[in-house]
């Protein structure tokens, strides 16, 4: 993806205000001013219709408030471990899709809420692959393969995921935009541990791979034909490690099942947000980081099949 995230500069807006507005106004007679000139200049600078579109992956610890005080206090630490390991899996196991990423970029693109957060990514496919890797790490933790003593103290955890695709901009070292707002709305409304996506994410997959049902037969070669991947280095197609989605179709590893269903619409005064429930089953080979010979094949689920409305 060649277009960079839209950046809004504080000094530039301050300059526009200085030229078209008054910082302090305390006349005896107060009147509503004509703001048309200021609005025109702000509209020209902000150019909101052309804000870059990015994907937001929202991750939330399900029923975080039900944990006891000690366990609650440890969960932000645990989440950071899970996030780091999921990032490493993306960089090591999905090298074509994540060729433009690094640990530093993942960290800078993440807005933490303590028990979860929002990760800004390039496309919905990036978000789905990150969520799969994150869920794989969670499975390793829950099954006592990752810090088993800490697992015994905190207990099993469950995750909620949301993926949205919309406008994002960068201001004062932080990310803002509709994609984050919509993601938060979905997570707030969902009372179950599902993986939910918005209409624009659904449409992205429909346009680029003929729908999420085709994730199980998708290959790296087909990903390289997607518009958002046209400037990606072809070297990473054949000379790099690409699991989950590989160079050929496999029913033994990767995404083996994909289900999607529209579950409802979130309504507010200004907008409506169609929401879909996606459920994936993924078979993966996992191994001990210190001893690669100790490995096993497991199948994990991202989301679930609960079709209760939102």
Q: Would you kindly provide a written description of the structure presented here, covering whatever features stand out?
A:
The structure is a single chain. The chain has helices at 10-20, 36-46, 69-93, 103-108, 124-142, 148-154, 178-189, 199-209, 220-223, 235-238; strands at 6-8, 53-61, 110-112, 116-121, 159-167, 169-171, 174-176, 195-198, 254-267, 272-287, 295-302. Helix 1 (10-20) runs antiparallel to helix 2 (36-46) and helix 3 (69-93) crosses helix 5. It is globular. Helix content is 35%, strand content 25%. The strands form 2 sheets. Strands 2, 3, 4, 5, 8, 9, 10 and 11 form an 8-stranded mixed β-sheet that branches. Strands 1-6-7 form a 3-stranded mixed β-sheet. The protein has 2 domains: 6-46, no CATH class; 51-302, Nucleotide cyclase, GGDEF domain (Alpha-Beta Plaits, 2-Layer Sandwich). The chain is built from 10 helices and 11 strands. By secondary structure, the chain is α+β, with helices and mostly antiparallel strands.
